[in-house]
Design a protein that fits this description.
6-stranded antiparallel β-sheet, 4 helices, 33% strand, 22% helix, alpha+beta
Length: 153
């Protein structure tokens, strides 16, 4: 099991798995009570002038789903070792995602310090980036997690 001490500042992780976005986002978006037509209605996307100009008339995948997916892709290498996820901050969607895009995740440790809540833990601040198949950043967010420290440190 990896611990806080295994992730010094500057550690970069390119998470191995990726996921191709399909129609499943529509169902999951509806479960979040998001009814924005941009995420569901192809006819609307093709006919609306702004959507045609901005997104070439394509359905845009809901950003909440993209965030959840990127966080999940990073989880096997970092989050699964955490005692707690303290939170997320400063999230930004940098590009829209569309059905057929494949999403990957990368993490970089930007801060590492003892947890203010428990001396047995260390707190990491990680910049989590989601990228599409072209390597373009689509999402960036800070993730803060507490991990166990090695005994005696």
């Amino acid at each position: 099991m990896k611990q806080f001490d295994d992730f010094p500042v500057g550690t970069r992780i390119r998470h191995l798995q990726g996921r191709t976005l399909g129609h499943e986002h529509r169902f999951l978006t509806s479960l979040c009570m998001n009814g924005v037509q941009l995420h569901f209605n192809q006819d609307f996307c093709e006919k609306d002038a702004v959507v045609r100009e901005s997104f070439q008339g394509r359905i845009v995948v809901y950003g909440g789903y993209v965030f959840t997916l990127v966080r999940g892709l990073a989880s096997p290498d970092l989050g699964e070792f955490a005692v707690r996820e303290v939170g997320f901050a400063n999230g930004r969607h940098l590009r829209p995602c569309f059905e057929g895009d494949t999403i990957y995740a990368e993490s970089e440790v930007v801060e590492a310090a003892p947890s203010p809540d428990d001396a047995r833990l260390g707190r990491l601040k990680v910049t989590l980036v989601g990228r599409n198949q072209a390597g373009d950043a689509v999402l960036e967010v800070e993730q803060i997690v507490d991990l166990p420290r090695r005994e005696g440190r």
